[in-house]
Write a structure and sequence with these properties.
This protein has 168 residues and is an all-beta fold. Helices cover 0% and strands 70% of the residues. The strands form two sheets. An eight-stranded antiparallel beta barrel has the order 1-2-3-4-5-6-9-10. Strand 7 and strand 8 form a beta hairpin.
């Protein structure tokens, strides 16, 4: 799974960031029979990050994801292509590590781990097990914060996630 999540945020002070998010994620796989599965996820969100220690942060965010799934049967199998479109809300909680963050106007990178605590069946961050139970899968994000629009009284930042990897 690979995606990009540009953020437009505001550093309230050296301990607190808030941001609006746009998510775009694509995943594709082929199983041993040759069947193909495609998933495209996009949607808006928002988050709050609290930095209790200079390089450690706590993350709380919400997302509304629009999900498009497509199944392509193996060639010459007689199977039928299938499509499904759903949407899902997610509440992401976690934490992470950032490089040396010098206040509100600094460039830094980060690595975070989160889980979707809603355990919604349609969430792109959950897995339905064989017994029907739902398990939240860890979401690993890495990115950079690039401070933009740095005026005397404004501390707006634009944050970019370079990649999003979901462990299976």
């Amino acid at each position: 799974m690979l995606g990009v999540s540009p953020y437009f945020g505001y550093s309230i002070n050296k301990f607190l960031d808030v941001a609006l998010v746009a998510n775009f994620t694509y995943a594709g796989e082929r199983d041993y029979t040759g069947a193909k599965y495609r998933q495209f996820v996009y949607g808006p969100g928002a988050f709050v990050r609290v930095f209790p220690v200079k390089m450690i942060f706590l993350h709380a965010g919400v997302e509304h994801n629009f999900i498009s799934l497509k199944y392509i049967p193996p060639a010459n199998s007689g199977g039928v292509e299938d499509k499904l479109k759903v949407s899902s809300n997610s509440v992401l909680l976690g934490g992470g590590y950032s490089s040396d963050r010098e206040g509100t106007k600094s460039f830094f990178y980060y690595l975070s781990v989160m889980v979707d605590v809603t355990k919604n069946i349609y969430s792109p961050y959950t897995e339905v097990l064989q017994d029907g139970s739902i398990r939240a899968t860890p979401i690993i994000k890495a990115g950079i914060q690039v401070p933009l629009f740095q005026g005397k009284k404004r501390d707006f930042n634009c944050l970019y996630n370079l990649n999003r990897i979901r462990s299976f």
